[in-house]
Amino acid sequence: MESGDKVWEVFVQKKPGLAFKHAGSCHGYDKKMAIQNARDLYTRRGEGRALWVVPSEAIVSVPLEDSEAFFDPGDDKIYRHATFYKIPDGVNHL
Amino acid sequence: MDKFEKAFNDIIEKDLKVEPRDWMPEKYRKTLIRQVSQHAHSEIIGMQPEGNWLLRAPSLRSKQVLLAKIQDEAGHGLYLYSVAETLGITRQEMNAQLHSGEAKYSSIFNYPTLTWADMGAVGWLVDGAAIVNQVSLQRTSYGPYSRGMVRICKEESFHQRQGYEIMVQMAFGTPEQKEMAQDALNRFWEPALMMFGPHDADSVHKGQSMAWKIKRESNDHLRQRFIDRTVPQAEFLGLTIPDENLKFNEETGHYDHSPFNWDEFWNVVNGNGPCNEQRLDHHKKAHHDNAWVREAAAAYAAKTETIVA
User: Fold this and answer.
1) Nearest by CB to A4, which of B4, B78, B302?
2) Which of A34, A41, B202, B243 could potentially form a cystine with A53 if both were Cys, beta carbons 3.0 to 4.6 Å apart?
């Protein structure tokens, strides 16, 4: 990559109250340029009312080869789901 | 077959999406980089034939609309460059490949735009053909490419309607304007059909791309869909499609057409079209002339950005 030019991940919030959603990436040399480029690229038609840009290199993720083991602790705890519990017939609002 | 290859094959089999960090065959990655970067370059080079009419647009409204459309094309190019970057190629490398001729862009942009009616024909036919192709690509197996296509398709329909509106104004205008509209159709019809690429029997990349679900429908299939949609639109305009063998076939339910002039197609692909040199030279010049902006931006960022270095 050209010196100084960075890739940024772009997150757009469509409406107040909604979660920010990953929209894609853009280029920029600094924060201000990155967020202006993100605006021009991802919100030309009112797609959002708030924006985040994060340097791509700052995103941390789980290496693919580790993902099975990494997510494993969640898989065997079925009692974390509401459907695990039996509620007698006739009991409502549960 | 190791577990990564099996995981990849399962994704393709089940019509799921391959994501940037998933394992993928090297050939899959290379094919996508070639296709997506070519797609991106087409959007960017495609700004030039339209930019030609920006300062000569016949009204403020048409100028504003054309400017917005060209800005969209830039946006589409950037979405697509971003997609290619997730596959491990940099923006700089893609630019270098475009400049060296290693990477191609759609041949259609090597034709000149001679009259204002060409702005109509480009939007109606060129964007129309692109939409047929891109709607199909929304189902491509590579996740970022698929999502890019969804976004692009939403925006493209404005482009095609904008083009058709110009065609309506010209075709129902003065006799001279109608003549211009017909002339634009005459020049852009066959090149637009050739945008779908060679016939299926001659398509080099077809088999593997279809098996990997990078492409979902064949060139000929998409081309026929475009023809079937477009002929009635030309009839409405009272214009004649420049193909004397064009006829509705009751049996197949599709329009038959003459064979295309593929020599002309390959000649333009290989760099001998009317504007190949002009388009590339312009891109190189803009890139070189703007080097100082990149240098200044880098110097400014080095000075002011302390948190994210």
Assistant:
1) B302
2) A34
* Residues B30-81: tens digit of each pLDDT: 999 999 999 999 999 999 999 999 999 999 999 999 999 999 999 999 999 9
Residue A45 per-residue DSSP state: T
Question: In sequence order, which residues have a C-beta less than 8 Å from that of residue B307 and are 6 or more positions away?
Answer: none
Instruction: Please judge whether A4 and B294 are an interchain contact, meaning their C-beta atoms are less than 8 angstroms apart.
Output: yes
CB atoms within 10 A of CB A53: 23
ipTM score for this prediction: 0.84
Return the SS3 of A90.
coil
Q: What is the pLDDT of residues B107-155, one digit of tens each?
A: 999 999 999 999 999 999 999 999 999 999 999 999 999 999 999 998 8
Q: CB-CB: which of A26, A30, A64 is closest to B300?
A: A30
pTM of the full predicted structure? 0.92
- Which residue is it, tokens 């099975």? A68
Q: Which residues of B touch A2 (CB under 8 A)?
A: 91-92, 294, 298
CATH topology of domain A6-62: Ubiquitin-like (UB roll) (3.10.20)
Residue among B104, B92, B111, B135 at smallest CA distance from B50: B111
Q: Which residues between 29 and 68 in chain A have a beta carbon less than 8 angstroms from any beta carbon of chain B?
A: 29-31, 33, 40-41, 44-45, 55, 58, 61, 64
Cβ distance of B144 and A24 shorter than 8 Å: yes
The residue among B11, B78, B154 with the most chain A CBs within 10 A of its CB, best to mutate, is B78
Closest CA in chain B for residue A53 = B308
Rounded to the nearest 5°, which phi and psi values hold at B308? Answer: -105, 100
Q: Out of B71, B90, B297, name the one closest to residue A29 (CB).
A: B297
Question: Are the C-beta atoms of B69 and B162 separated by less than 8 Å?
Answer: yes
Evaluate the CA torsion angle B302, B305, B307, B309 in order and state its sign.
Answer: negative
